[in-house]
Design goal:
The complex is a heterodimer.
Chain A: H1 2-17, E1 19-33, E2 41-55, E3 60-75, E4 78-93, E5 96-109, E6 116-128, E7 132-145, E8 149-161, E9 166-179, E10 185-199, E11 202-215, E12 218-223, E13 226-231, E14 236-248, E15 253-258, E16 261-266, E17 269-272, E18 275-278, E19 281-286, E20 289-297, E21 300-313, E22 320-331
Antiparallel strand pairs in A: 1-2, 1-22, 2-3, 3-4, 4-5, 5-6, 6-7, 7-8, 8-9, 9-10, 10-11, 11-14, 12-13, 13-17, 14-15, 14-16, 15-20, 16-19, 17-18, 19-21, 20-21, 21-22
Chain B: H1 2-24, H2 26-32, H3 43-56, H4 60-72, H5 77-99, H6 108-123, H7 128-137, H8 146-161, H9 166-178, H10 186-198, H11 203-216, H12 221-235
The chains are: A mainly beta, B mainly alpha.
């Protein structure tokens, strides 16, 4: 009884001081493609997000986030849904910042396949060394539903000053995954990014990353009595570049341009009678996008995005040409600071 | 040796004399510049502005720049004359703001450049109180008065592009001047403001959670980027 009373007091204390932030977005996306007609169509959607920050002391805060998205793709895709929730505790003392918490994600659609669930730890430790910050972000993930397994990964990232008007970001990541019905896979990568701030009304940044994912998963098939080992198609090397430009066009209008480009080299092939017959595949993807964001009022903004998802490959079934236009209205009442 | 030095000084003086004369002599501009003919109807008004400015000790080159700029843009004669009258009033106000400071700008060119910057700030709608406060904060040993000019150049575009109220703009300017950032980096902060805003952050959130805390903690773009990364991480699910 005493514990329950104490808990109520703590919760009341948190809610009394909490700073909520919420946004509700209503929009529709129109997609056109000749290669994949199933994904073509119109998808009205509703998405919302809410954050709650409760200061516990000068140094510590409790954070809670929740988000959802509901969409209906017509005529092909039907209902799609997504939900997310996270609870964190953050602590900052001088140059040290730490976050500890957990998050859960669930998503699914009307195609009949199982929904997928993921629960993950949310841990981060950052050290601010004036001209350099170092962050270590380890995570343990548990997946259920469509893909079942366990994963451990970590990111070591650093942001450092590059002159008066630029910063550079360096990222090293690695991880291991154990699918329930397979052998472990590992992933390793490194990235480098530069953001340039020449002054209003322009910002430009470019990110480049290389990622290597290797799967030990393989299946053995027997064709005409000859055993053939087929490696998992998930094994790949990816090189990506993300150039971005933002420009302010007056008090209420922001223009954004971005064009992520990625080259993925996949290790296909088969081991036939002990001999590897390589069958490399390449996939080049590009997603040019231009967006205009208009702040109609402090709590209402309108956004229009025109973009494309293009994929070129030596394997015709991976090729994609999609053009899309998304219009959305974001309602975000000012938090009661 | 002494004679050679005198000759060099005289040559420099002779070469530069026509330039100064041209800068100050508005009548000569009306006679000599082909674009001056289009503004003969307001020559009296323009000359009166220059004469009043000369009597008040205002830097005439700023008015001359304005005159040439207006003529190059082919603005109407009345608009040009009234623009010069307003510029003259702003320069007087700028001079008063700068004269009221505890740390005066001694060097003539620096003082005149500061007057020009203050005039631009007044034209953009920034209140004299904020401008004056920027100069009162830009004092030794941490700062010099010219740093206030860099702070004004950084906060004006933020004010123009955002819905932040004047007290918030004042806080941003004060935080810039109290920070460890060199004045050359001030404009990058306004550029960062745009990036955070384009990422979906509210103006108030960018100011309260990214800019002010980073600057007050002695940080700069690195710390602001880190705060933005944490913000985007929390928003990643949306």
């Amino acid at each position: 009884m005493k514990i329950r009373g104490l808990l109520c007091i703590v919760l009341l204390g948190c809610s009394w001081q909490a700073f909520p932030e919420a946004a509700l977005t209503v929009g529709a996306s129109a997609e056109s493609t000749r290669i994949d007609p199933v994904s073509a169509g119109i998808e009205p959607f509703l998405k919302g997000a809410c954050s709650l920050t409760a200061p516990l002391s000068d140094r510590a805060s409790a954070l809670a986030d929740a988000a959802f998205r509901l969409g209906y793709g017509w005529p092909g895709q039907g209902l799609t849904w997504f939900g997310f929730a996270a609870a964190d505790f953050s602590w900052r003392a001088g140059p040290l910042f730490a976050m500890l918490g957990a998050s859960a994600t669930a998503e699914g659609d009307a195609t009949g396949s199982l929904p997928s669930f993921e629960a993950a730890t949310d841990v981060e430790v950052s050290l601010d060394l004036s001209h350099l910050t170092l962050s270590f972000i380890p995570a343990v993930r548990v997946r259920a539903g469509d893909e079942q397994g366990l994963g451990v990964d970590g990111v070591l990232s650093s942001i450092l000053a590059a002159g008066d008007a630029a910063v550079a970001r360096i990222r090293i990541q690695g991880g291991l995954e154990w699918p329930v019905d397979g052998l472990p896979e590992w992933i390793a990568g490194a990235g480098l990014g530069v953001s340039w701030y020449p002054g209003m009304p322009l910002v430009a940044s470019i990110d480049a990353a290389a990622l290597r994912r290797v799967s030990s998963n393989s299946s053995v098939e027997t064709i005409d009595g000859v055993p053939i080992t087929v490696p998992n198609a998930d094994s790949y090397m990816e090189l990506s570049v993300l150039p971005e430009i933002s420009a302010q066009l007056g008090r209420s209008l922001t223009l954004g341009l971005s064009a992520p480009i990625a080259l993925r080299l996949m290790d296909h092939g088969a081991v036939v009678a002990g001999v590897l017959i390589a069958e490399p595949e390449w996939l080049l993807t590009c997603g040019p996008m231009v967006s205009l964001r208009l702040e109609a009022s402090p709590s209402v903004s309108l956004k229009a995005t025109l973009g494309g998802d293009l994929a070129f490959s030596n394997s015709s079934f991976r090729e994609k040409r999609v053009a899309y236009l998304t219009l959305e209205a974001v309602l975000s009442p000012a938090p009661p600071h | 040796m002494q004679g050679r030095r005198i000759i060099v000084i005289l040559c420099i003086a002779l070469l530069s004399a026509p330039a100064f004369a041209e800068d100050a002599d508005v009548s000569a501009w009306f006679r000599a510049d082909p674009r001056g003919k289009a503004y003969r109807s307001v020559e009296g008004r323009v000359t009166a502005v220059f004469e009043a400015a000369k009597e008040s000790g205002l830097p005439l080159w700023i008015l001359m720049e304005k005159l040439r700029e207006g003529a190059a843009k082919r603005v109407g004669a009345d608009r040009l004359a009234s623009g010069l009258e307003q510029e003259s009033h702003r320069l007087l106000e700028a001079r008063d703001i700068l004269l009221g400071q505890k740390v005066p700008l001694v060097e003539t060119r620096t003082r005149e450049e500061a007057m020009k910057a203050v005039s631009i700030a007044l034209l953009s709608g920034l209140s004299p109180a904020i401008i004056s406060e920027m100069f009162s904060l830009a004092v030794p040993p941490l700062r010099v008065p010219q740093d206030a000019v860099a702070a004004l150049a950084a906060i004006i575009p933020v004010r123009d592009a955002s819905r932040l109220a004047e007290p918030d703009i004042r806080r941003l300017g004060a935080a810039l001047l109290a920070s460890r950032l060199p004045p050359a980096a001030f404009k990058s902060v306004s550029s960062f403001f745009l990036k955070a805003r384009a990422s979906g952050a509210r103006d108030e959130d960018v100011l309260e959670t990214m800019l002010i805390p980073s600057l007050e903690a002695g940080g700069g773009l690195v710390q602001m980027e880190e705060e933005l990364r944490i913000f985007l991480k929390r928003r990643g699910s949306r």
